[in-house]
Amino acid sequence: MNKQQAGEAGNNKETAKRPLIIGHRGAAGEAPENTLASFQLAAEQGCDMVELDIHLSADNKLVVCHDATLDRTTTQTGLIRSMNYEAISKADAGSKFAAAFSGERAPLLEEVYALLPKPIEINVEAKDSYNGALDEALDAFLQEPGRMERTIVSSFDHKLLARLKARMPELRIGLLYGAALIAPAAYAGLMGCEVFSLHPHYSSIDAEDTAEAAKANIAVFPYTVNEEQDFLALLDKQVDGIITDFPGRLKQLLDRS
């Protein structure tokens, strides 16, 4: 989805409003989060976009993992930033979820791009700047042909996003936030650069927020939504996309609507 399409989705409320299906860490409700198996499942279930998280390894590889350590999601422990990717790749990131996924690992960002067909977009959440090292690595990564145009970079660190936008003016950025902001679209206007999307916690937004975002040509992608009643409430609020651990569940609901 490009900026024009997001604007059309936001500004034609009566005619558009099938929101994008955005697989949270792939299909994290049914496969180990942030693994190739999870992203493959999300694609098979019909997602339009996947959301994932990145950290930087000791050898400056962009590693897909939510936490700064391997402890919670793999059979190994350790800080990603202090380990080379060769060591990280030996950690089993699947068996804690289910034995059937034994052998899955924390992939490199480039592997996810190679796995997913190009109609599927990728929302990269930057977890930490690592004193600017991640900014550099991500900039270099996105300069490769075919990557920039299918990418949105989001973060709770809005200063990091502003720096990335200054480095890469063509980059689409998304503001992650958990608080119930008074005026999210107005806040985006204070960034001093173009904001593509707002990524609020689903419980913190209302119809006025989405209407104001639409007027500003900013998409709204709430996270992380898994129950049918919450899907339906967000459809009523006319959001542009829904981030979910169960992309197949959301697709089934949208297909019935």
Please characterize this protein's 3D structure:
Keywords: Membrane, Transmembrane, Transmembrane helix. It holds the Pfam family GDPD. GO terms for molecular function: phosphoric diester hydrolase activity. This is Glycerophosphodiester phosphodiesterase. Residues 19-254 form the GP-PDE domain. With 257 residues, the chain is an alpha/beta fold. It has a single domain, classed as TIM Barrel, CATH 3.20.20.190. It contains ten helices and nine strands. Strands 1, 2, 3, 4, 5, 6, 7, 8 and 9 form a nine-stranded mixed beta sheet that branches. The longest helix is centred in the middle third of the chain and has 10 residues, at 133-142. The two termini are 21 Å apart. Residues 2-16 have low confidence and may be disordered.
Q: Low-confidence stretches at least 5 residues in length (pLDDT < 50)?
A: 2-16
Number of helices: 10
Strand content: 15-25%
Taken from the alpha-carbon principal axes, the silhouette is: globular
Helix content: 25-40%
Spell out the helices and strands N to C.
Answer: HEHEEHHEHEHEHEHEHEH
CATH fold topology: TIM Barrel
What is the CATH first-level class name? Alpha Beta
Described by strand count, sense and barrel closure, the largest sheet is: 9 strands, mixed
Mean pLDDT: 95
Distance between the termini: 21 Å
Q: Kindly name the structural category.
A: alpha/beta
Annotation, overall tally of beta strands: 9
- Output the CATH homologous superfamily: Phosphatidylinositol (PI) phosphodiesterase
CATH architecture: Alpha-Beta Barrel
